[in-house]
Amino acid sequence: MSLIYEILKELSSTSLNYKGVRVNLFGIPKFKNYSKNSLSGTFSRLYKDGFIEDINFRTEVTPKGKKYLKRKIDSLKQFYCKFEKDAPKNLMVMFDIPETKKAEREWLRWHLKKFNYSMIQKSVWVGPSPLPEEFLEYIEKIKIKDGFKTFKLAKEYDFKK
C-alpha cells in the first residue's frame, strides 16, 4: 500500500506518542523505513488535500481522509480463482477506468491475472469464462461497472498468432 494509506491508517487507529513521534505499542517509531523528506512531503500533501488537519495540537484524520481509507480497505477484497491454468480463454474483458480510480484499476488488473487472464493491451484482457458473479457484483459496488465490458469469443483466443 501507499505511504498515504499507511499514514491515514495509523492516524485513525492509534494515539500513542513518544516525544512527539507516533509509536506502536512497543514504543518503536512508525514510518522509520521512510526518509524524512518523503514523510514531510506526504504530510504536506495530506494537509493540502484535506485528508488530515490539526485539532487541539493533534493531527486528526478528516471525514474525507476516512472516506479515502474506507475506499482503500474495500478495494482490498479478494476473490477465489476457480479457473484451471489450461481453461480455454474465450472471454475478452475491456475496461476504461479513470485516473481518479487508479487503485480500483490496479485491483482489477491484479484479479484478472489471478483469474488466469492474459493481457493483450493494458486495458484488454482475455481469459476463461464466466467471471464469478460476486466479482461482477463487487465491480458494480465500487462503481467501475460503467467502464467495464465483456465479450464472449466464438472460439478460444490463440496467443501464438
UniProtKB/TrEMBL annotation:
Q: Which residues form the Transcriptional repressor PaaX-like central Cas2-like domain?
A: 92-152
Q: InterPro entries annotated for this entry?
A: PaaX-like_central (IPR048846)
Q: Which Pfam families match?
A: PaaX_M (PF20803)
UniProt-recorded name of the protein = Transcriptional repressor PaaX-like central Cas2-like domain-containing protein
